[in-house]
Amino acid sequence: MKTRLLHLRVTILSLSCIWLAVAVVTAQAAAPSPYEAGPPSARTDWTPASHLPSPRWGAAGATDGCVLYSIGGRNRVGGSADHVFAYDTVADEWTAREPMPERLGGLQATAIGDLLYVVGGYRGDLSIAAANNIYDTAADAWSSGASLPNPGGIATAAEAAYNGKVYVLGGDDGDLNSNATTYEYDPATDTWASKAPMPTARENNVAVTLNGKVYVAGGMQVQVNFEGLRTFEAYDPASNSWTTLAPMNAGRVSPGIATDGAYVYVYGGAASYETGVLLRGAERYDPATDTWSRISSMGRAVESMAAAYVNGRLYSAGGSFTQSNQYLEIEPGSCTQGSEPD
After folding, report:
1. C-alpha 160, offset from chain centre
2. Ordered DSSP codes for 114-158
């Protein structure tokens, strides 16, 4: 009971800080933090797009091709949602799809073909799920896979996929200690395996796969404080080993992450869940040189958004209780069939 009450206290603090963050966005624009000030961060090339049908934060973002999906999330009154919205990047339109089997927030997702894997999350009563929900984008239908091996569940964990397998990294299991766990799910056998833990325990971290490596960025350690981490680490599934890489320019809690197949992009997030400072800054990692460089700042500071690289663009949808949808053009898009994957 004591642990649950402490967990509730931490969660309420996080929610309060997010509300504060929304309130101070305007002040940030007038007095940017040192790592966001000056060119090229001051240049804003992000383009607004059609808003989500309803505001939410902590929704899972993923893509099966030319469509961005926003799955679940938490709303203004603190409840979790089962909504699934699909954004057509060509038509600039959102469409409601089949809801999740359960209302969940604090989610991330990853795609293998037409299947989106959404693991764990917070229920409306702040209990943590161990469910492995699988959405078939072609059939617009949900199924379930084997639950997480941690019976207490996990929320705000990073997710990525490689070689037909799903990786769930870190997160919150309700014990007031951010996790370093690495779980591997094999859809072919519907089984989970524990892999080498991350060098840095964290939650509200994000992940993406590039060139056979799973890159994990940012997050926070609640057993230490609520400050954003600059930490950037890579997992090699082939050798089951981790490498610590050059840190990001800014510490980020719950940023967006995406890859265009050449670079890793990390954008937005919160500098701290204690101060409520949200970030507009965006940066790009070059795996060939192990270096970061700043790119155009977001049009609106936001964290806990649904994020993905779709149709030649970096997307950020929702987050911080907003309906904001914005994108940064990286290269010419190749989607020509509307909602059909390229």
Report:
1. 10
2. TEEEEEEEE-TTS-EEEEEEEEETTTTEEEEEPPPSSTT--BS-E
pLDDT, residue 263, reads 98
**Residue 137 CB contacts under 8 Å (≥ 6 apart), including other chains:** 64, 67, 69, 86, 114, 115, 116
pLDDT along the chain (342 residues), means of 10: 32 37 33 42 77 94 95 88 96 97 96 97 94 98 96 95 98 92 98 98 98 98 92 98 98 97 97 91 98 96 96 96 94 64 30
Both tokens assigned to 132: 């492995």
Residue 123's CB: how many other CB atoms inside 10 A?
Answer: 18
The answer to whether the beta carbons of residues 298 and 326 sit under 8 Å apart is yes
CATH number of 2-329: 2.120.10.80
Residue of 163, 143, 89, 78 whose CA lies nearest to 325: 89
The span from the CA of 70 to the CA of 273, in Å, is 23
57: which DSSP letter? B
Helices (H), 36-135: none
